Amino acid sequence: MLSGLKNQLMALVCVTGGNGFIASWLIKRLLERGYTVRATVRDPGNLRKIAHLQNLPHASERLELVKADLLNEGSFDTAVEGCEGVFHVASPVNFVPDNPEEDLIIPAIEGTLNVLNACAKSNCLKRVVLTSSMAAVSTQTLAKSGFIVDESCWSDPDYCKERNRWYALSKLLAEQRAWEFAKEKGLDLVVLNPGFIAGRPLQDSLDVATEEVLNFLTGQDSLTKDSAFAWVGVKDVVEAHILALEVPMASGRYICAEQVMDAPTLLQVLQKIIPGHAVPPKYVANPLPPATLYKVSTEKLKKLGLTLGPIEDALKETVDYLLGKGLLPKEIQT
Ligand SMILES: NC(=O)c1ccc[n+]([C@@H]2O[C@H](COP(=O)([O-])OP(=O)(O)OC[C@H]3O[C@@H](n4cnc5c(N)ncnc54)[C@H](OP(=O)(O)O)[C@@H]3O)[C@@H](O)[C@H]2O)c1
């Protein structure tokens, strides 16, 4: 169906939430591959949020920024018009919302439906790629030691509610609605389910995943201190998105994460990366608790054509970024 698209230089694709961590890398790669990109942002006039996109190679010739908001019905119609592919990446990422419904669940679901509605109106769109999450796959403790999580797994909404995992609930409900809508309207939808993403941010603000590494290293409250998560590098996530668009046989969900780390394992990996290998003082006094380590299947992703790289490389890019910004305190650097 999409055969030929990958050789079709200048094919027009849309990326929602263009200024975010993943989307910025995705836009960079798409421009490098010859695509013409229309990216949506909430405020194209906010230079702090968009300068890094305007400075990407080929941006001046092949990147257009369009204003759109997940909560405004019809907001994505113009952005999607004329596109052969749409990457719906935008969604609020916030692990501690003040108001879970308003801050996360409504924008995630309504936003997805707004984007998909725009897609359903198009007469030239070939495929939509949705960025869901491992949070929609395996939030509850499927985690008997050694359990293998694959694409048939779904997070349990009751578990998410009981544990205040509102972000996970927003991703779960948005993905479920997307599948229902795509079936109803006959849209070709492919979904990516990335784990916790490491790598160097391109944007001029801390995304939640990078902030999570910072919080973990400085002993602040962080999700990663309590549970085991599957991790993946941002460049691999971006390659997976592009394959999901370009490979004609791509279908269904794709888990995009491999290395499952609990807090002690994450700490060990980070200590190897940080010059001086110092243990954050807080964790010397209070050692981090181990969590049950499950496994994650990347067989389906491999069949799509992607083998994930070592997470150490991506985490090193996160740490180098934090060091470069002067965000890591002296005591954990030496
Ligand atoms: N990072 C991870 O570890 C990870 C893992 C799995 C899945 N994901 C998924 O990947 C996607 C991107 O995440 P990210 O890490 O790149 O986060 P991010 O940097 O925070 O990007 C989120 C994007 O969504 C946009 N957005 C939020 N609310 C919006 C609204 N009401 N209208 C329009 N745009 C809105 C943000 O725009 P503003 O800048 O204007 O707020 C931003 O562009 C999300 O769908 C997330 O759930 C992320």
Automatic annotation (TrEMBL):
Keyword flag Oxidoreductase: yes
Q: Which UniProt keywords apply?
A: Oxidoreductase
Record SUPFAM superfamilies: NAD(P)-binding Rossmann-fold domains
Query: Locate the NAD-dependent epimerase/dehydratase domain: which residues?
Result: 13-249
Keyword Oxidoreductase recorded: yes
Q: Which residues cross the membrane?
A: none
Extract the Gene3D superfamilies matched here.
NAD(P)-binding Rossmann-like Domain (3.40.50.720)
UniProt protein name: Dihydroflavonol 4-reductase
This chain's source organism reads Dryopteris erythrosora
Gene name tied to this protein: DFR4
